[in-house]
Design a protein that fits this description.
Blueprint lengths: L8 H12 L4 H8 L3 H13 L12 H13 L5 H10 L6 H10 L3 E3 L3 E3 L3 H14 L4 H4 L2 E7 L12 E3 L11 E3 L8 E5 L8 E2 L6 H20 L5 E3 L4 H4 L1 H10 L15 H12 L8 H13 L3 H9 L1 H10 L8
Helix pairs in contact: 1-2, 2-3, 7-15, 12-14
Length: 334
């Protein structure tokens, strides 16, 4: 961004505020996200009392208020749809003008955050669970082996619809995309502790109780030996049907492995969900051509996960618990 004319209204206001606070132009440029020369030109222009030259704006304050109402009614519309509605409302402006006015208001087109869909009973149970675990220390959480399944696709480019939001609105309910538990079309099972990750298991069929117990026998138990040696540990998994089946519970009792009670539909409380995200981000530039190449890429990327990354994620558990309590059981930013 090399011209002060390219700055949005929000950026200009931010520059003025930081300048009054005594921040240097270099610091201001970094915080605003523009070049230092743009900051300098804006400050000098304001100091000289110069106004922006060029043609007068073709839209009034009333037009801008109408545009903001249209955007806020449905934040998932594209610019073309928003421009059409604005035109129907009686405003004569081009599509590019519509886009500029939205940017001047502080709206940016972003990929929406995803949060699980929780009903009232689930929120109450999450809150009760968090209150029960609020005094657990990082050392206690380090004894937990976190596990989960995740679906990997050959193409990572299709991330769905985008949403119009302003700075600070990432958690606005109207800017969020609700998620639901995905069907059992999972492909990969993995586990982690605060020290490292365990071996991956690529699932070839629908995960029922019998298949899941095979995964536990041939992958979870070796992972436990690798991560904990002969020390005691607690195993965590979610409430998927295969996990909560009676025969699975019997399997754990027979093997003397204690389970961590876990609230339903709570991926935001599980640090391995963030680990899957790290793996997928590291694979962003990978272009596997088939399932076998995809598996090889996943294995190679999983092997690059460091103990420091695992430790940092598990150490976040007390903060996740506090966030769940503060949100009264609602889904959190994690």
């Amino acid at each position: 961004m090399g011209k002060t004319a390219d700055l949005t209204t929000v950026q200009k206001m931010t520059i003025d505020t930081l300048k009054k606070e005594g921040k240097t132009q270099k610091v201001i440029a970094k915080e605003v996200g523009c070049s230092q020369s743009s900051v300098s030109k804006h400050i000098n222009r304001e100091a000289k009392g110069r106004k922006r030259c060029g043609r007068k704006e073709c839209t009034s304050k009333r037009d801008k208020h109408a545009l903001e109402r249209i955007v806020k009614q449905n934040r998932f519309k594209n610019v073309g749809e928003i421009h059409k509605e604005w035109t129907v409302a009686g405003v004569s402006a081009s599509k590019s003008t519509t886009h500029r006015r939205m940017q001047d208001m502080g709206f940016s087109c972003r990929i929406p955050r995803v949060k699980p869909l929780l009903n009232k009973r689930q929120r109450q149970k999450r809150l009760a669970w968090a209150q029960d675990k609020k005094d657990w220390t990082a050392a206690e959480w380090s004894k937990v082996m976190f596990s989960d399944e995740s679906k990997f696709c050959i193409s990572f480019g299709n991330q769905g619809p985008r949403v119009w939001r302003k700075t600070g609105e990432a958690q606005n309910p109207r800017c969020l995309k609700s998620s639901v538990k995905f069907p059992q079309s999972v492909m990969v099972w993995g586990a982690m502790s605060s020290a490292a990750v365990g071996p991956l298991c690529f699932l070839r069929s629908r995960v029922n109780a019998a298949v899941y117990q095979e995964v536990l026998e041939h992958f979870m138990l070796p992972a436990a030996d690798q991560l904990y040696g002969g020390d005691d540990f607690i195993f965590q998994h979610d409430l998927a049907p295969a996990h909560s089946a009676k025969s699975t519970s019997t399997w754990f009792k027979d093997h003397g492995i204690p389970l961590l009670d876990w609230p339903a539909n709570s991926p935001d409380l599980n640090p391995i969900e963030n680990l899957w995200g790290i793996v997928k981000r590291k694979m962003r530039d990978a272009r596997p051509n088939n399932a076998e190449e995809l598996k090889a890429t996943i294995k190679a990327t999983w092997a690059l996960i460091t103990p420091e990354e695992c430790n940092r994620l598990v150490d976040s558990m007390p903060r996740r618990i506090a966030a769940a309590i503060q949100a009264k059981g609602a889904a959190t930013k994690y």
